[in-house]
Write a structure and sequence with these properties.
The complex is a heterodimer of chains A (288) and B (282). With 288 residues, chain A is mostly helical. Chain A contains 13 helices and 2 strands; from the N terminus they run αααββαααααααααα. Chain A has one domain: MetI-like (MetI-like fold). Chain B folds into 2 domains: 37 residues; 237 residues, MetI-like (MetI-like fold). Helices cover 75% and strands 1% of the residues of chain B. Classes of the chains: A mainly alpha (288), B mainly alpha (282).
Chain lengths: 288, 282
Amino acid sequence: MRKLKELVIEKLILICGLASIFFVALIFLFLLKEGFAVFKAVNPFNFLFGKSWYPISDPPQLGILPLILGSLLVTLGAAVISIPIGVACAVYIAEVAPAKTKEALKAGIELLAAIPSVVLGFIGMVTLVPLVKSVFHIPTGLTALSGSIMLAFMAMPTIVSIAEDALYSVPKSYKEGAFALGATHWQTIRRVMLPAASSGILAAVMLGLGRVIGETMAVMMITGNAAVIPRSILQPVRTLTATIAAEMGEAVVGSEHYFALFAVGIVLFIISFAVNVTADLFLHKKER
Amino acid sequence: MRNPYRAQRIAFFFLFLATLLIVVPVGLIVVIIVQKGLPAISWQFLSDIPRHGMRVGGIFPAIVGTIYLVTGAIIFALPIGLLAAIYLSEYSKDNFLTRIIRLAIVNLAGVPSVVYGLFGLALFVVFLKFGASILSGSLTLGIMILPIIITTSREALESVPQSFREVSLSLGASKWQTIRHIVLPNAIPGILTGTILGIGRAAGETAPILFTVAAFYLPQLPDSIFDQAMALPYHLYVISTQVPNVDEKIRYGTALVLLALVLFMNLVAIIIRYKFRKRKKW
């Protein structure tokens, strides 16, 4: 009797172990099921590179190039801000900060990671957006730049914590070797630690930016939501994620608009899949 | 000749500056929200329904909705996540299948939250015909927090020393008895930490509930899991972007309640982890 019970439990454990694979497949399947229908109305090339997104005009124009460029612009801006600051902060926490400060800083970074994106979006709206508007003397502060700054903050916790892990896992003997040769601490960091941790840091940057591309609420609240091809970083833009979040509520189930938004979801899913798999390869490079 | 120690001082100064650039704004964000939100907090604000187009009154239905959603998500995700963690830590071998599972977990954690929203809409709301309901929203959030629960529980299980298992097995206990009576009890704090972090994440997310459950405004509380519900993060989004002329105090107050809820969860998780580390016998 007990044998039977244990057999059932162990099978259940196996099934749950496979659940993650099942759910990833399920997500992709349902995105495909709902999104693929859009390619009856527009061919994949025109969908990805069409220059106008007017989903509710008649006939609807479903080109997501403005949205892709919006996402890219905001992500690029966030990358420029968050990579140097994030990596520098990781180095500070891993190498320079005294033990007590280190714990406090790590807690602070965890705190930042925990703040819900809608709260960051709200704070961005009431503080950052007016600031950007007055600094650059532009008609609205709801711009790609505001989005980039806010998203840089959301990428920071990921970049800092994974890069710090990577620095931490560099063998102590590397450091001792450099010290023994008379290198200063900074020379050791720059010439030994950073190169040794480079693949982990690269993964940290990728995962951080992956988070930026997928971020939705904050970006929707502060980038101004204009689905046009951006000409400058001081203009309103609309990202892939914000388009889904803002328009799905009004799209009729089964309409071309509805299918198109799911197809945008497929694009996002593929981007995040590629980013995560590549980052994972970098992270586990040295294990083999 | 260049002085390497001066270079080091300058470099370390910039590293410190970069750290300040992250930590100071985080502190400022929390301080601003607490300072401007605190005057709005009163018993009435927490226990009343929103009135006059959400411009006065309280946020009670949103708080209740979030509690329902989070509870539902945990009921779904904890058993599956825990069993999956047991599989990975106790049963899986270092083979291709395990590698695929690990990759799937990483991907599940990386899927953008709005894509979870689409998925929930397609599967639960439309395909399974649950409609926009607490059930659909909870299941969507549950799948979203699954990777957090699996990863933290797995770490907790794996940190139980191998010798504990060996002793139990050598006394004639079966594998499941060993897991049930030896490994799990010793891993409880870590599992709890993961669960609480999952709760915090589920409570704060907006995009997955946008099309699966969230109601713009509901005058009464939901009475079944097939009802729509209001939720704190969505409510904050609505009153800060969709409804004009909402008193700033109400916006900050809502932001404060949401932030406090999420940070409280994280604080509890940190404390449990800290206490556990101190108490650890091995």
